[in-house]
Amino acid sequence: MKAVFKTDRGKIRQHNEDNGGIFINSDGVSLAIVADGMGGHRAGDVASGMTIEFLSKEWEQTTDILTAQDAEIWFKNQITKVNQLLFDHSAEHLECNGMGTTVVAAICTNRFSTIANIGDSRGYLYNESGFKQVTEDHSLVNELVRSGQISREDAEHHPRKNVLLRALGTELQVEMDISTITFEEGDILLLCSDGLSNKVSENQMREMLVSDTDFTEKAAALIDLANQYGGEDNITLVLVQLCDESESG
């Protein structure tokens, strides 16, 4: 399995409130995460950082993720715990009041990938059927699209595009989406913050993933493209590809 994580402050923001990483447990199973923090006084980077720290430490101690059900239960339990952690921290530290973060994470095995998400950080899958988004944004604009009130084209330029309906750590109870997809040799999973998806089209993402460039260079090129188009937000992504043993790096 090939995997690369990359994050960039972008061209406008003074701080990077995104976080993420790729973590491998003792069974050799990968956990990939992207978290896009939000909140005043740099509390966003506290929220995203605490999320990554908690989930990565829990993952290091996790074994026997053998089935999709195992992975789905792990996400439900651990994301619920980290939501409580963030909510309590926000209540106890005035400077972090109202902080939260999006999260999109994937447990990747050589048979399946289980994906959990809250907010508008996204997961995409490239496979023999093409390239498609495999998560649903928890945003006001996406609800307007789903209900038929606006078109997807209108959504791209909607003035309330950044309004989230769900985030990790902002409420005592959290609702997450969890799904499992087949993950086969050659498939590529892309997880990213909206700093990428708001700037780079799905066609451009697909073209970059199928290009002949090195796997790490694909990630760097996607970041560069988002910056070329303005880079107003932090930009973070993870790429994971299932490949045969001779190709893995």
UniProtKB/TrEMBL annotation:
Its cofactor is Mn(2+). The keyword Transcription does not apply. InterPro entries: PP2C, PPM-type-like_dom_sf, PPM-type_phosphatase-like_dom. GO terms for molecular function: metal ion binding; protein serine/threonine phosphatase activity. Residues 2-242 form the PPM-type phosphatase domain. It catalyses: O-phospho-L-seryl-[protein] + H2O = L-seryl-[protein] + phosphate; O-phospho-L-threonyl-[protein] + H2O = L-threonyl-[protein] + phosphate. Pfam families: PP2C_2 (PF13672). Its EC number is 3.1.3.16. Keywords: Hydrolase, Manganese, Metal-binding, Protein phosphatase. It comes from the Bacteria. The keyword Hydrolase applies. This is protein-serine/threonine phosphatase.
